């Protein structure tokens, strides 16, 4: 609904009485429980009881000093006008954002208050949470509705997900983070199965990435979703003790054809259940919960053991502290789990353990004296310190680890046995594996103080962002007298080198920093990486089997393929794509494929404003989706593709 930027009029403050009235309406509509010791009509003042009371619940839903404004936008294929009201506020530690919206006139208008993702990120279990694969989530975030085959979790579904109910949808990668808000078109809670069903399940209203999410009174970009949110993974556990499984990433219920990845969103394919298939692979025995717990603990110990072996003299053996929950799972646990197949990947998930979520797992490691943890702002739990000298780490006996390819393949849904590989048509770029790495080379200003003085042609003189972070930590921890604050390790006192080398510009920020004599560790890292006089940016494009030592990094920002849509001769639209050669894509072969797939004429010419030899492929019509599919087949990722739509009317 908010793909197009709405027109929002001037904000006006909400009176306290109006704010309380609106908050009470939300409490009533969403059936939020008020503790019995707090009368529903009173605001207890000075209560020392930490349990939620009516005032705290009101403030969590609609913070104090909230504002409102009227808005207008258009919806539907006929672009019918929609009018309503947005409610803007600031959650603790956040920015001023749209927290609620109400549709009052036009298609879909019902006068109901709908939460935005910012409200859901601060109010766990406000609505029921459904799940969908990441591929489908990307379609939802482009404005599509969620079809019934796109529901990823197995029945029973949440009891509150009845027809007409407001629900949130999360992807499988971040199953505790709502990214999409909509209304149930059917009674999802009554579904017995998903396979073979058709039709809309959830009508989309708002999602991370739309114009409502992007709005800010200070013109700041929208806030990205967190990696993990405590509370959103507990609703199912309370309703059903039996359901402790991780939402499986391979969603067999989606009848998605290889050439039409939008089928789960727009129209599910009709598949006959009696269709003969090849004999299935043998089913592996699922490990017990105790075995999964032991595997997670051993994986953590293995990660510490390997860090200690690989970085014997580095501070914290190369581990950057504090450790975030997402980093713990993706970089320390998953690579050291005994995952050798896609089926095993479904067993070894955090929700299959007795802890159910990362926060409780970290608490367990703290209790076992492996780590020292801390709750941050009442949200996620982070690891502040690690005991590398624990006898369990020193006496650890390594076991055989799965290959990197096995781990990556285990994360992908298994292809059906009778699926035939797509024909490449003689194009060597189809099926290639690419890895674009951003690298940094230190200048003489920071060598040899922070980085060793190496030749510019030495492959070791190029650092990833994580390597720059580790080098900075080593420098900070080696200083005598210490410059790291004992009370808060994120605060750094400026020594002569930092003051005279890093913060040397005449900007107000540098003057304030040097006058204060302190900075933050993250701010210092950001300054070093972004200042071209300290670090020069480079990039390297690695193909299958290549390492950084095999290629010479090139200066500048990592390249992207440019896709331009523009209008010619009235209403005629063309799609142009350039900068293909750097990724090993042959323009003429891509043009041939697009001509067949799109049934449109194509042409190849020198790209305007580009170096000689950089060609541009032109295809008739708006072919961005077909082009994206063709580029993904050639090893590209969506973040390496820039789309410029010049067909939109200027305001």
TrEMBL record:
Residues 561-635 form the SUI1 domain. Residues 33-70, 256-288, 410-430 are annotated as: Disordered. Residues 267-278 have a biased composition (Acidic residues). One of its GO terms (molecular function) is translation initiation factor activity. GO terms for biological process: formation of translation preinitiation complex. Residues 50-70 have a biased composition (Polar residues). It comes from the Eukaryota. SUPFAM superfamilies: eIF1-like (SSF55159), PUA domain-like (SSF88697). InterPro entries: EIF2D, eIF2D_SUI1, PUA-like_sf, PUA_eIF2d-like, SUI1, SUI1_dom_sf, WH_eIF2D. This is SUI1 domain-containing protein. It comes from Aspergillus avenaceus.
